[in-house]
Amino acid sequence: MRWSQMHIPTLREDPADADAPSHRLLLRAGYIRQLMAGHYSLLPIAVLVRSRVVAIIREEMARIGSQEFILPAMHPAEIWQRTGRWEGMGQEMFRLRDRKGADIALGMTHEEIFTTLALELSSYKQLPQMWYQFQTKFRDEPRPKAGLMRTREFTMKDSYSFDLDASGLDTSFDKHHDAYVRIFQRLGIPAIPVEASSGSMGGSASTEFMCPSEAGEDFVVHCTSCGYAANVEKATSRLPVVTDAPGLQAPERFDTPGARTIADLAERYDAPGERQVKTLVYVVDGKLTLVLLRGDHALMEQKLNDALAARELRPAHPEEIREALGASPGSLGGVGVTDLPIIADEALRGRTDMFTGANTDDVHLRGVSVERDITVGRWADLREVAAGEECPTCAEPLQVQRAIEVGHIFKLGYKYAEALGANVLGPDGNRIPVIMGSYGIGVERAMAAIVEGHHDDKGIVWPLSVAPFAVAVVIAQPKDEQTVALGEQVYEQLRAAGVDVIVDDRNERPGVKFRDVELVGIPFRITVGKKALSEGAVEFTERATGETRAVACADLVEEVRKAITSHG
Amino acid sequence: MRWSQMHIPTLREDPADADAPSHRLLLRAGYIRQLMAGHYSLLPIAVLVRSRVVAIIREEMARIGSQEFILPAMHPAEIWQRTGRWEGMGQEMFRLRDRKGADIALGMTHEEIFTTLALELSSYKQLPQMWYQFQTKFRDEPRPKAGLMRTREFTMKDSYSFDLDASGLDTSFDKHHDAYVRIFQRLGIPAIPVEASSGSMGGSASTEFMCPSEAGEDFVVHCTSCGYAANVEKATSRLPVVTDAPGLQAPERFDTPGARTIADLAERYDAPGERQVKTLVYVVDGKLTLVLLRGDHALMEQKLNDALAARELRPAHPEEIREALGASPGSLGGVGVTDLPIIADEALRGRTDMFTGANTDDVHLRGVSVERDITVGRWADLREVAAGEECPTCAEPLQVQRAIEVGHIFKLGYKYAEALGANVLGPDGNRIPVIMGSYGIGVERAMAAIVEGHHDDKGIVWPLSVAPFAVAVVIAQPKDEQTVALGEQVYEQLRAAGVDVIVDDRNERPGVKFRDVELVGIPFRITVGKKALSEGAVEFTERATGETRAVACADLVEEVRKAITSHG
């Protein structure tokens, strides 16, 4: 390729409103342009990178025997209604009506649609099947952000497995797990597999692949000692045992004028956070629900969501709370409440001599024994793990780190097969539902994650595996005929040798060209200038290290091959 | 690949409701499945064919220097509003609102969006640019039909050219023209370039690539003598000159009880069709309009649409007609009508002594001189050319043939650049708008067109260039160890030689396997059976001809290579 004939609109300045390095650099280096919030055009060099990412994923899918499909992006509402997700997906699903008034969903994921194809499987002998596609997904994200990191329209490689039984699913899941490990390794993404919430996907277990990064939107809890790692949405920790006094015979009301927070109560009434019961009120699928936690703990909403298998969940409004409990947030409690469901965090089990609100403004209770005095309908792990708490496995202190979710694999179980009727004849002649898994990688987000991990103050530093070009030949003096001739010769030699090479033949100063090659992030630069003409040697510069050395023209192809092999 | 491990759900019977051969065969051979009307899933072997079609198109785009992009499928309404196409596209455009209430279009084509990227071009020195993408288009077709032929969701390769002036556009247009000729040739589609209407695209000229086929929805008018070819939406013909009597001083009313059609009038009142003025009433962008044609001519709606640059156009309802003209269809005419726009076909120019309706039920006029008696506001070519009429170029009889539109290329002119402000600094330092072209190929429709031209009563007969596999190795006796071993060896040899090969290793009878290989349409079949074991020779069968010959195992790779080369 010739730089002069490619549209690579690099920008001199950092674009405004682009904080994440990948967002800033992909814009600045001429990879992407925003059409509207959450929707980006990929320019030619981005298409090259994307095609390399896709090729790597495709190879690894083929290696585990997965077959490539392409399914529609538009789905009839009816199929989503049968699994309950037409309602369940809420506002995140783009919906429209066609000219005949039929309700249509734009696919945010394809469990339902792939399952309709699995209806053609008739015998256990056809299992296992692993099916995947590269396809555009549409999600009406509330807050698209950070360039390609969180968009409303993106390419996903989504796979689906269909097995006869749980051990078959384990095998398909493990194959994908291992394929994902290889994929991220080849992409240069230091992803770590972590336990995760399955969210709206349902199913029994899921693993996220997390790339540690300050630009990430997720938090991973992990233990450097034993390797425990989980999304904070799912993570647990060990808590030191609290020894309570037995407390009172019954809770006792006391006035707490102006004390509205955990801290107020701790400070003024000798009630440390760990001795308080914090009472939150949520609306879960339309139903007011009390959520109890230790005073010094924070609620992890996803855990609440998962525990209650909620479709929709939000904090209650103050008016809703006052109407139900007769008090404002700050004086709420579960004692005596029998007409609302109460869910409590495991850390409150067995606790006595506790403080909590009395459902009267500026009044609290003391001497509360949680299990004696509160009608807890459900116990669950609801609290957010904090850095420094003890690892649930080895008791060493946990760390919490920002990360980008680059992949997510799910054991789905029977949810979709049962809802849509995907059965096969089993070995015993009876029909049994297939058991499913699903597995996803966001292609453009993977590109962003690579840039997050591979850049410096000069620009992007692509790993060779995904770079738009392996080598840029820079003609330093484009007005000098001999330099141009030699540059063109070097370019042709490398092309003939099968090297992905671009020649910077623009009529620009060397400094401009060097800056662009660095910004765009091409792994190797060959500079053809006066020295080449006089000494028969070109400059060979490695983008990652900045190291430059002279290479004799005669040895160049061989040296480039070596460099590529050693970086492969 | 192994047949036993690929999902190729062939059907024993022809599927119901699939008339076009491509629809029937792609379903039956396990290439596609319908999700809902106009939306198909591509199964694994279809993905292989599609990837080969895409690769051929991509190569030819690269050859003319076009650069690959990927643009969003979702567009803000605002950009379409600026070119007037938000309204102009009517019901064919899928529209939705996002969670914030913003209007969004699903891209049916990308002139607007590519033009927004061209806003970054600043100088004539950056021109020409040719940009393309492979991308999903969404169109709310009123009548999706014939499988992949007309869908609501499909992959389009759409290109856009940006030039400094009309001669630059001519060059870009010609490059695409030639690339399309090569593409269709390589795909095995006997496409012919024909003059076409530009429709909602606007612009000065367009050429369609038409594949003659009974399954087509378009009609091509062509002359086997001089090569004239045009879509019937655009085609013209020469008409024999009609010599009229001078007629009456003024039109004369006469009663025509029960005569409601051109034929009635011809039969009962000695008024042959060519002496009648047929009066149609249309609603054009909300405005009632009279459309006049010779009695024996049919209206070509697209020509009316193009002549009036209409956004929306439909025949008026009988009530609307009666309210405006006071009569029913059958007794309508333009004489004396001054409050409605009247557009007349060129064939009526200068005609005298004509018959037409009197705008009173069961009354007509005779002795009408069209230009004297009717206030024609606009003359245009509106009639549909019929087979047998004279070629406009050489006067030989024209033929009319059904065809599939497989490509369409447009000279767009300045419409989009001016509406969206795509200017560059010209050589003289003044800003001038760029001139554009756009060029499209429907990928899945091309697949269907290939099948329409390449099938027989046994199934599909893919051209080698796009076949999912070049060779199928059929193990005839899958229960015989030695046959299996030899079959596997042949398979491995061909794989090692870089041949796209699938081995049919299923535990099925040879007849089942042969039928499937034929139905799926794999160009070459190698049968490994008892003969191979005893004589060291396999059967080599060519799908297109059915010819079978014995090939010694030792020569097989070489023979396959030869066969592939001679078909390439």
Automatic annotation (TrEMBL), chains A, B:
EC number, UniProt record: 6.1.1.15
Domain of life (superkingdom): Bacteria
Keywords (A to Z) from UniProt: Aminoacyl-tRNA synthetase, ATP-binding, Cytoplasm, Ligase, Nucleotide-binding, Protein biosynthesis
Catalytic activity: tRNA(Pro) + L-proline + ATP = L-prolyl-tRNA(Pro) + AMP + diphosphate
PROSITE patterns given in the database record: AA_TRNA_LIGASE_II
Pfam families reported in the protein's UniProt record: HGTP_anticodon, tRNA-synt_2b, tRNA_edit
Cross-referenced SUPFAM superfamilies: Class II aaRS ABD-related, Class II aaRS and biotin synthetases, YbaK/ProRS associated domain
One Gene Ontology term, aspect cellular component: cytosol
An example molecular function term from Gene Ontology annotations: ATP binding
Domain Aminoacyl-transfer RNA synthetases class-II family profile per the UniProt entry, residue ranges: 49-463
Subcellular location: Cytoplasm
GO biological process terms on file: prolyl-tRNA aminoacylation
CDD domains in the record: ProRS-INS (cd04334), ProRS_anticodon_short (cd00861)
Keyword Cytoplasm belongs to the record: yes
InterPro entries listed in its UniProt record: aa-tRNA-synt_IIb, aa-tRNA-synth_II, aa-tRNA-synth_II/BPL/LPL, Anticodon-bd, Anticodon-bd_dom_sf, Pro-tRNA-ligase_IIa, Pro-tRNA-synth_IIa_bac-type, Pro-tRNA-Synthase_IIa_type1
UniProt keyword Protein biosynthesis, yes or no: yes
Stated family: Belongs to the class-II aminoacyl-tRNA synthetase family. ProS type 1 subfamily.
Reported function: Catalyzes the attachment of proline to tRNA(Pro) in a two-step reaction: proline is first activated by ATP to form Pro-AMP and then transferred to the acceptor end of tRNA(Pro). As ProRS can inadvertently accommodate and process non-cognate amino acids such as alanine and cysteine, to avoid such errors it has two additional distinct editing activities against alanine. One activity is designated as 'pretransfer' editing and involves the tRNA(Pro)-independent hydrolysis of activated Ala-AMP.
Assembly and binders: Homodimer.
Domain notes: Consists of three domains: the N-terminal catalytic domain, the editing domain and the C-terminal anticodon-binding domain.
Name listed for the protein in its UniProt record: Proline--tRNA ligase
Biological source species: Virgisporangium aliadipatigenens
Lineage: Bacteria, Bacillati, Actinomycetota, Actinomycetes, Micromonosporales
